[in-house]
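Q: Joint fold for the lines below.
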Amino acid sequence: MKDKKKIGVYICHCGGNISDYVDVEKVREAVSGDEIVFLSKTTMFACSDSNQRDMVEDIKEHNLDGVVVASCSPKLHLTTFRNVSERADLNKYTYVHANIREQASWAHSDNKMGATEKAIHLVKAAIAKAHYAEAQVAPKIKAEKRVAVVGAGVAGMKAALSLADKDCEVLLIEREPFVGGRVAQWDTLSTTTETGKEMTTRLYNELLKRDNITILTNSELIGNKGSVGNIELTVRKSPRYIKGNCHPEDLKRAIEVCPVEVPDEFNFRLSNRKAIYKNYPSEYPQTPVIDMKSCTRCGECEKVCSSIDLSEQAEELTFNVGSVLMATGFDSYTPAYGEFGYATSDNVITLPQFKRMIDTQEGKLIHKGKEVHNIAYIYCVGSRQEEGGNTYCSRNCCTSTIHAAVTAKEKFGKINNFHFNRGLRTYGKQELLYADSLRNGDIYLQSYEDGPPTVTPKGDKTIVKINDILTAGEELEVAADLVVLVTGMVPRADNKVGSLFKLPKGRDQFFNEVHMKLRPVETVIDGVTIAGACQGPKNIAESVNSALSASTKSFSIVSKGELETEPLIAVINDDKCTWCGACEEACPFDAILKTEKDGRTIAQINNSVCKGCGMCTPVCEPDAIDLIACSSAEIMSMIDALA
Amino acid sequence: MATINPAFGNELQKYGSVNFNACYNCGNCTAVCSLSTTENSFPREMVRLSALGLEEEIQASLKPWECYYCGECTTYCPQEANPGELMMSLRRYLTAKYDWTGLSGLLYKSLPVSIAAFILVFVGVMAFAMSVGFELETLLHVGHQFEMIAIGTIGMVILLPNIIRMWNFTILKPGVKVPFKKYMRSMGELFVHMFTQKRALGCDDNQKRWFEHLILVFGYLALLFTTVFLDWFSTTSLLVHVFGYVVSTVVFVVTIDFVSGRMKKNREVNKHSQPSDWFFVIWLFLMGFTAFVVRLFIDFDWLESNKWLYIVHFTVLAQWALLIVPFGKWTHFLYRSFALYFAKLKD
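A: Joint structure:
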């Protein structure tokens, strides 16, 4: 406790909100006797400009050490009065707030005597705290001016470019052998004339132009140490087994002679590829890769191509970065066995498969050897499901389906499209695409969640039936040659990278932001931002928007080379600590580390990660942890004052 | 259970439908329609049935006839799907379906066929005129006889069977049970609608068009009666004589307004004229006008030296009676009245 501390106390009427029930003058009298209270005043509106000015004058004139305002909730005006203190050249942490409106006058409007008494106690408790309130300075830590972008899809590549252009070093880490993510799998894209492949190529060429971007393909993030500002990442870079500068003809022959065939994930298992492969000719990086999981090491390729080296080894690399930007994308929903005939009926495929079919076929649209004329699209498969399934809307699938339907009709001619939907969500400019499809003669049939269409094979056709709510619930049917299940986006099944950073997930199991509206790309893990569809279903435009936003946020963390951290955090009393580990368990932010000091094992707070939440203090048996500005002594003195 | 047939849209296009596929089922058309009711709502329902190609249900429906085409639905359609013109096209389509000869469909769908048919009738008239050596007396006499025979034959051979087919599509096939008494009691409905089109007064701001239509119907029927049964061209009665002038004037004056409206495209109803619409109004005009001029020429004794005039009139008459009345837009007058009668039976 400091001696000779001088504080000012201001009791607010709140224009009657408080003073109608609480006798503010009586409160003032009751607290004015405290040894550190130098002056005490009542005021009609403490938050008014005139009172704020008076407070500044009082503080300066009387050299006050701190201020207590007894008014409304600190949620409303804590910052206001902290700012008043700062304007009067006081440290803002010397300010203490007492809430006598929500906690006294409003809560006890039926008992004025009681309300007044409670208000007196609340203000006394605040004054008790003011005895301890000290100036605090935000500590600064070094921030590495380098950002790791995880995932080189369209979001990751755009984020990398944006960071590079802010003069920030970028580490772009891609687990797959090639960049482009999902977008590289698409041919024409909706509401633009560019193809996914062209878009990927364009972005990749831009990446190559910037020498402050390091691209790591075939590389997986496997280690994460440290915290915001200084994060140490370990990356395992798998070899391609092909050394640079090999002759393209040799490589072509190597692919020809490879005897291994495995289902091609790039084409959603519609076709097969070799163990040595490249997904499409203009793919980046241009060197093919050998998929060691399926390679039998028969050596046939080595015989025809001298650049192949099956003895290449994986390397582990470490990097220090200030911030990590996650752009790990999504998986397409895989329907359950038998869901709308999936896997049980020959004619049933998913939307991503259908899009690959359109892309890879010419002239006629053929499925399983038969020409396709009637296509039934069943919407919201794996989206907007009942509780227990994926209840969310995948946002992009309506537009994507209509775009595929329009493209198929344009490319193959004699196609009839039947859309079995549950209400269309082609929002914004995408509505134009819907209009195009209607004018094309596409037919839309609609049902509610509880009456989905049924799919029944009949000969070489598949009958899709619906009670169409647009035709007064009449039962209608289509004999489809192909049924396309419009599958939505789901979080990546492989969440290794998420677990590595302990990234929290939202209700829909995608990575979660801190605040949907105001902090849309930050996570509760300091220094880790999220972009693109790893956060939830997004189309390309939305992914890029979030990528640009996340890159700016990540950059703002590292841009100054140092970071200010929250001063109100936990501190360890080294002498008292006996390291039982209870605090480490209780900490939701991984801010407590086990450390050795003077031959003893004790806990240490990682100041840059601690958020001052206080979860560790009650579990500490020897009472070795205190929260700055909420120390045990402070809290006890407040409780004494309230008693 | 009904199977969707998207190809129907192409078929309907041949009957003049415009862009109805653009419909996204908002229902604005039905909401603004002043004739649509909760129990009996259109045109969205018909747009939907057309998009799905549910022909059986369309053929069983009387709704296309219950619309008098004010065009409000088209004005307020946010998708510019033109429901008003769709209803018109459905009327043409239904006319073709009711017609057992199939000629209606041919004429509606193909302008060349229509033109060929009109030329054929003209050639027939010329051939006949030549065969009687262009003798005016015979021409006038046969012309008059032709009118009487044509009315009877077309009525019995084409129109009556077609009405029965319409009854079959809309009452019998859908399984509507109507007691015989009701047929009799509802008969009034048929005549009221046939002669007054009173339902059209329910359309917003339609009084002028309704009134024009009303006097045209009476003018036309009166002209028919005057020429056929009162033998206007040979009459000695002054009353009949003057009456003929009045009614033929009514016919061609009102039709001038109709034709000019279609040329100006001044209202929604006039914006998408099909050949059948043009034939109807123009031939009606020609009927009134040539009849008027023929009688004038007779009065002034000029006809003998201007026999071509009567041949023109005869040709117009024959084309009207052999093409437009049995297979063209004239039938709408009949089907619409029967539709409202059948609708009453279904009530």
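Q: Anything notable?
A: The longest strand of chain B covers residues 2-3. Chain B has two domains: 8-98, 110-346.
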